[in-house]
Amino acid sequence: MRFKFAVIFFFTIAFLLNCNKIESNIPPNEYAVYNDFFNHITESDEVEIDSVSIAILDSTSIRKDLSLNIERITMLQKEWGFELSKELINDFITKNSSKHFIQDHFETELKYQIVVTNEIDEIFKNSFSWLIFEERFTNVKSILGFSRVGLNTQKDKALLFVSINCGPLCGSTWFYYLENVDNKWILAHEKMLTVS
Questions:
Q1: Does residue 183 form part of some domain?
Q2: Pick from 142, 196, 150: which is nearest to 175 by CA?
Q3: Number of domains into which the chain is organized
Q4: Quick check: 41 and 107 in contact, CB under 8 A?
Q5: How far is the C-alpha of 23 from the C-alpha of 18, rounded, in Å?
Q6: Is residue 8 part of a domain?
Q7: Is residue 189 part of a domain?
Q8: Which of 34, 70, 175, 182 is surrounded by the fewest CB atoms within 10 Å?
Q9: Per the confidence metrics, is the pTM higher than 0.90?
Q10: Per the domain annotation, does 140 fall within a domain?
Q11: Containing domain of residue 33, as a range?
Q12: Residue 119's closest CA among 105, 131, 110, 132?
């Protein structure tokens, strides 16, 4: 009986240790897009770097009701005045058909912490979700969720979905179109989808 317990205990510990070592399958070129997105935020006058602390969800996500369907593609193309390439659209849709684990490969002046998506989902099932959130994450002002980055074949055009939640009646969702110029991702177009 003790031997059986010892074996179960050993495998449980081994499993938990391996859980902490899960590697992200998001490649560095996508983290470069995330980081240049943060650079855009910090370079604008909209954010005071010292006073902002954010939580970044630990897995990629995109709201099902805001997925990249034909209507939304048409809306973005009309708004931005050009046609999105098929490979960019397909890459975005394929990558975002499932969630992907995000690791701490961010380079930004913003204060941030990566939070477990499941924990945040549990908190927001509660009627007093923001009170619970603020109690648990005392310094955090906003929660950011990223999609995977859709890229064209040349890897010089990118499409990104971002959700921002900053309070009970404070939040927005966006699509961003970025272009790589001299090895830096420049925000070329943006479209706000929802705001509260």
A1: yes
A2: 150
A3: 1
A4: no
A5: 10
A6: no
A7: yes
A8: 182
A9: no
A10: yes
A11: 24-195
A12: 132
